[in-house]
Amino acid sequence: MNISLIGGGNMARALVGGLIARGQQPDTLAVVEIDAEARATVSARFRVATFAEIEAPAVSNADIVVIAVKPHNVRTVAQALAALLERQVVLTIAAGIRLADLSRWLRGYRRLVRAMPNTPALIGAGIAGLYALPGVDSEGRARAAAVLDAVGGTLWCEREEDLDAVTAVSGSGPAYVFYFLEALDAAARELGFAPAEARRLALATFSGAIRLVEQSDSDPATLRAQVTSKGGTTERAIAALEDARVKAAIVAAVKAAATRASELGEQFGAEG
Predict the structure, then answer these.
(1) SS3 149
(2) Distance of alpha carbon 6 from alpha carbon 93, whole angstroms
(3) 173-260 CATH fold
(4) For 123-137, how does the pLDDT look when each residue is reduced to its tens digit (9 = 90+)?
């Protein structure tokens, strides 16, 4: 499978690195990046073909073209790509850009897949939601999934609107985790630990708990109950969290993120 990526930023580099680590040959990859320094970095690191602009040699041999630029640049990229597309699947990982708008900018092209990855993809531990237009066949869907599988897991959505929820849960989700870690770290320091010790305790606790739930047949609620002895320290802590309605606040926060994702989709579409 030949793959061309438009954009050479962090996520594009993660995808290229993940694909090569999984056996993709560098000579089947091409990256278009307008910034000379970023382009040189990609070329030196991965030994793939690079281009300074979108032109036929960059995409004509591709089976899949990945749009990996900032959302506000997608319309310009699409306008440059439109005349060069014949059979390629176009996979966009630009947040908030709806396929109806992308198709319009691509002069009605319909072999389109939209994905919402998250930042742990940078270390090969991401999760991405995907949605394909009906015109994309099983082979095209498989190609799109293979790109994202190189940096983590994938989840296909039945409706494009579901990607707003994916954005809210897993796209923004790492920030929620970091927020909780900030609080746990701060609590440890307030209880007398040095910053390095507080960080170590918080990180080890979080990563250990994640590993435990991944390897357990029990759901998080059951595991929490098993740790919460009647009359003990954990029960007191959970009661304080419940009194503060922390769980309800987290649910409300995720729903707010989903609403904002939908708003951004409307905004980007209206601008084009």
Answers:
(1) helix
(2) 10
(3) ProC C-terminal domain-like fold (1.10.3730)
(4) 999 999 999 999 899
